[in-house]
């Protein structure tokens, strides 16, 4: 009878060990999945940052184009009616070989 109990106890211990191993494998899989998600999220954030910086650089290129004063005035006046032009006065500021346009309302 004792031999049968020892065998049952060994079988129970073996099953417990198998269960623990399975739990460890599941935990490893979950951890790998978490790490993969973190890497993907970091990649997405990095790509968003790159996209944002590229957009800023593109915006700066558009803003910092060297335009002749006549071209700037032409661009402004294309969309303005004479009534709007009467209320706004353009000031052209030259700074480091770039033309910046500042429009101030006349009060």
What does this structure look like?
There is one protein chain. The chain is α+β, with helices and mostly antiparallel strands and 107 residues long. The protein folds into 2 domains: 1-63; 65-107, no CATH class. The chain has helices at 2-63, 69-79, 82-87; strands spanning 88-95, 98-105. A two-stranded antiparallel sheet has the order 1-2. Strand 1 (88-95) and strand 2 form a beta hairpin. The radius of gyration is 36 Å and the shape is rod-shaped. Residues 89-107 have low confidence and may be disordered.
Descriptive labels:
single chain; 15% strand; two-stranded antiparallel sheet; 2 strands
* SSE order: HHHEE
> Whole-number average pLDDT?
73
Number of helical runs?
Answer: 3
> How many distinct beta strands?
2
Whole-number total of structural domains: 2
Short description, anyone?
With about 110 residues, this protein is α+β, with helices and mostly antiparallel strands. The chain contains 3 helices and 2 strands.
């Amino acid at each position: 009878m004792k031999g049968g109990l020892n065998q049952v106890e060994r079988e129970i211990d073996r099953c417990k060990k198998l269960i623990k191993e399975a739990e460890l494998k599941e935990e490893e899989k979950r951890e790998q999945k978490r790490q993969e998600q973190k890497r993907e999220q970091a990649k997405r954030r990095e790509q968003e940052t790159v996209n944002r910086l590229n957009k800023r650089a593109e915006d700066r290129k558009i803003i910092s184009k060297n335009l002749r004063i006549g071209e700037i005035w032409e661009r402004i006046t294309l969309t303005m009616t004479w009534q709007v032009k009467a209320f706004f006065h353009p000031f052209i500021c030259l700074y480091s070989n770039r033309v910046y346009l500042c429009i101030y309302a006349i009060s």
